[in-house]
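QA checklist item 7 of 12: single-chain prediction sanity check.
[x] sequence parsed
[x] length recorded as 289
[x] structure emitted
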Amino acid sequence: MTVTTAQARPATAAAPSGETVRYLSARLRRAAAAILLPLTLVILWQLAGKDGSLAGGALPTPDRVWAAWKIWAFGTPTGLSLSPYVGTWAESVLFSAQRVAKGFALAILIGVPLGILIGWSKLAQAMVDPTIQWLRPVPITAWLPISIAIFGIADFGAVFLITIGAFYPIVINTTQGARDVEKNWIRAAQMMGAGKLDILRRIVLPAALPSIFTGLRIGLGIGWTAVIVSEMVAVKSGLGYVLWDAYYVGRMDIVIADMVSIGLVGFLSDWLIVRLELWVLKWRRLQSF
């Protein structure tokens, strides 16, 4: 039997398609554009502080911040050392993330149903919305004394503040999403015999989801702000506590490393919300074709 040249040639992996190459190229360009500005700022910061005179020597350079963060994250305490800045980074992040998760979940459980109700019912709007708009301008820091008085120096005080901070953007965006539902959809459903609960579940809630996710993203960002504020005063653990403690003892390298850490975990949690939104609202992408 004769074996042809094509048959004798070993199998090779299929070359990537042109569409795949274009997609990967676009992702790389976006990634490069995203890191360009922060990288430039870090380089300028390093150059400006290399002689030790930046902000009178109070502001450490990025290389010192990086060195302090590595010890904070991966260092091993020696002897009787109980330094909170050696090998405790993951623990601090976990404490803060757990509090944000609890407060954010409570804000969703209260804010989304209430926002749908206010946007759907004129009676609920008249009864509840004025109180929400009255309390909304009160800053999170104003609730700190009440939180400490009721809950003391405890975890739930932080969860309480996070819930308050995340609640308002969630309920307001959900309300707006429920109000903006296309009225013709509701009329069509009523003509087909749909009841109020069916309309809420099958029309109002799906139509309000884009606004709800906007509220979730804003609320989550405020939740991270609230946890840092609460941990500075009302809790004795977490990223906020480390930040304030480091400031008191003059460890500005840890202060800045803490700030970067807060931004990083906040960015990652927002990314998760965006991924969830893309998955839940994939029908919007299908409609665009």
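[x] summary fact logged: Residues 92 and 237 are 7 Å apart (CA to CA).
[ ] second reviewer sign-off
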